[in-house]
Amino acid sequence: MTSARRKLVLVALAVAVSVAPVLCGAVRVAYAEDVSGPSPAGPPPPEPDGYRDDKYRSPVPLTLRGATILSSADAMKVWSARRAVFIDVYPHPPKPAGLTPGTIWREASHMTIEDAVWLANVGYGVLPPGYDDYFRRNLDMLTKGDKAKPLVFFCLRNCWMSWNAAKRALSYGYSNVSWYRDGSDGWQEIGGLIVEAHPLP
User: Fold this and answer.
1) Tens-place pLDDT, residues 54-85
2) CB within 10 Å: which end of the chain, N or C, has fewer?
3) First and final CA of the chain: distance in angstroms?
4) pTM of the predicted model, to two decimals?
5) Cα angle value 31/46/124 (rounded, 5°)
6) Are 138 and 119 in contact (CB under 8 A)?
C-alpha cells in the first residue's frame, strides 16, 4: 500500500469512528424515548382525536373511545380469568444498523406483568419503519386471527404509549380492546407479580 493510499484509509477510519456514535445516538433518540422514572403529576387531559406523538410520559386521558378502561382491580380480574392477552408496549432501543462485525450488542430486558408479552416500540405516535407490520403480525399471531380476542394494553402509569397502541389496535379492527391506564406501576401496588421479559421478535 502506498503512503498516500495509507493516509486516505486512516482518514476514512477516523471519520467513521467519529460519526458512528452520533448515528447510534440518533437511532436511540428517534426510536426509544426514555419513559422511565416516576409518574408525572397533573390533571388528565381531554382525549385527543389522533395519536400522541411527543412527551409520552405525561398525564393521560381518562378515556379511549372504543376501548374498555381498566383499574388495577379490573386488570387483576381479567388477568386471573386467563382469557385476555396482556401486551406491554414499553419502548426498547433496536439494534443499530451497520454495527462493525464482532461488535457485541446486549439486548436490554424489562420487568413486566407475569404472562404478558412485550411488543416494544408500537406505542409511538408515528411508528418507526417496519413496526406497523411488526405490530399487525404479532397481534395476528397472539390472537390466532380472532379479532374479538380480548387484548389488554399497558405500559407504565401516565404513559401515552399504551394509549396509542390500544387506539392503533382498534384501528386494525380489533373489537375487544382494553387499556390498563396504571400499567405495571399500578399492578405492583396491588401485589401483582412482575417478571423479566424480552421483546417478541
Assistant:
1) 999 999 999 999 999 999 999 999 999 999 99
2) C
3) 44
4) 0.80
5) 10
6) yes
